[in-house]
Amino acid sequence: MALTKEQMAQRMARELKDGYYVNLGIGIPTLVANYVPKDIEIMLQSENGLLGMGEFPSEDQVDADLINAGKQTVTTSTGASFFDSSTSFAMIRGGHVDLTILGAFEIDQKGNIASWMIPGKLVKGMGGAMDLVAGAENIIVAMTHANKHGESKILKECTLPLTGVNCVKKVVTDLAVMELVDGKFHLLERAPGVSVDEIKEKTQADLVINDNVIEIQI
Predict the structure, then answer these.
(1) Which of 5, 102, 168, 215 has its CA 20 to 30 A from that of 161?
(2) How many CB atoms lie within 10 A of CB 57?
């Protein structure tokens, strides 16, 4: 059974390490803020000018002036700070973000990511993703494994305009966890009830099936 968005966020939260500075992209990645392990301390950075972003607010905590880059209301953690976007992007471009978790339309086995536009459709703007993929040390992608027609979004080569090249390290989809090594995706984990054959069928890119592919623990 495919993972829900919340379950994907829970799995991605296990990639967080104590002391990390982390940027969460728009969409599924923002949900990771709700599942940060209690035994570690990290700082979540939002490119609209917030360092120390907390989990999503309960109804009585909502402050309409306190938002993330996706215009969702958020909370702050102890020690949070606010600044302008030029300072925010100086942090990103200066290589001070340890981990970025992004959504994507497509990724490929060269480590390329396409996440900002579909030709012929309305584009709101490229946002900060292009800076993030260039500046962060570690890029993890969160996405559905296939599109609504069942066609793979894990490709040999991206077909959409690229956001970044040779930057993706790992992907967490609704079906699997895969790591990119030497131009091939290595299957590490599979969603509960999802077979290896189904993952192979929905992965266009070269896929290496590791021994003992475990089920994702949520």
Answers:
(1) 5
(2) 15
